[in-house]
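seq as requested:
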Amino acid sequence: MKRKMLTLFMLVMTCGLLAACGEKKTAEADELKENSEQVEKDTEAEYEPEEDFGESLGEFDKSYNIEQMVLYDENDVKITANTINYDNYSVELDLTFENNSDKNLDFSAETMGYSVNGVNGFMIEDGWMHKEVAAGGKENDSIGFDYEELIAMGMTGIADIQVGFDIEDDDYNHIYTGPLVVKTALADDYDYENTAYRSTIQSKSFLYTYGVELEHFSEEELYDSNGVSILSEVILKNSYNEHILMLEVKNATNDSIYFKIENIKINGTDIYDSIWTSDHITAGNRMIVSVNINNILEDNEWAEKGIKTIDSVSFVVEANNANGYAVSEPKEVNIGDIQGIELDYEVSASENSEISEGASETVEEELAAGTEENVEQESDEVTPELKEFMDSYEAFIDEYVEFMKEYNEDPSNMSSMLDDYTEFLNKYLDFADKVDQYDEETMSKADQKYYLEVVNRCNEKLLEVY
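struct tokens:
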């Protein structure tokens, strides 16, 4: 199974998963797995720990399965869930796709434009799938969810799996199935309100296994408006000395929402004055919304603002529906009981001098002395390859949004739009080629920041046509 780019929850893991579709696990991840396997072997013998490890990270229960069931049977399309398979690394939901129409169909799940996958009441940014089914044909495929992410969220078995598909035909018409859910026998007794997520993320077993430090934990309900709430707040420090804010957000409404975080402040100082993230949460589900605090500013920017510790974090939250209209109150929330988390950043000697003596005057003096090249070399800029890649992606999204707006205004005009769509498709193929060539493992902090900014802008644009 290929992976969707940027699974935010996995930013806290030592393996640093910023995985592209089809990317192999990094050497760090392999080493982590080997170490975990060795720990498991060592603990097979009787062993009594001297300290309380809290929630245990045990074996994933692979006994729960489903009866074959039809998930979707409309518009000459039939989708059947056959069984759940458990391999060495992931849970796989086996599916059959039947195309009873006279047109070829493409079935896609967990894409940038349509993402509804979930497990046990939590949204999961995993399970990318694409399958082509010829007219009158039938094909099998599966959607996979990594054990690592499920166990890290406190899951030890499958109670339910939620998936959804974007189905596209030869005439570029789209059908969106909405969330489709299968349940196992575990669902009958599963406590969806009191999950093991919070106890797991505080446990020493979790912290040692994933190489992270728990810097802050609170179950204060920071936000509650019209069925949308923030139930818990966590800050973890990963092996890269990055501080990851994780919010447990619940959507208790009857519709999907897009949960937005914007206007971020640290210690009362403005550090980001627009939308940082917008996450899709389907009705009745929760999501762990993550913010890498370090990536919001460059190292020299933190120093320029005089921020050395994190004593409070505040931001504005709001939920919108699919049409972009507010469904909850925009409100600034504050995490104020943080115990002086130290920010780890490096500032070069010249940058430190600029900050203490006045950045703008020092830069002017250096430029006058002919050292402009050195200043540029010391700055942490976005790599040209990434900028070209992300700019081409945003241009592609802009083209797509304009095309869909035109189509939505008059769907009967599709025949006259075929030439435009052919041009649009060629641009898509060019973008797909850039995806295959780009290596996300080389991302610097500046690269990650630019990546997130572009992705969030594009997500906002896609809301205009969905």
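The radius of gyration is 24 Å.
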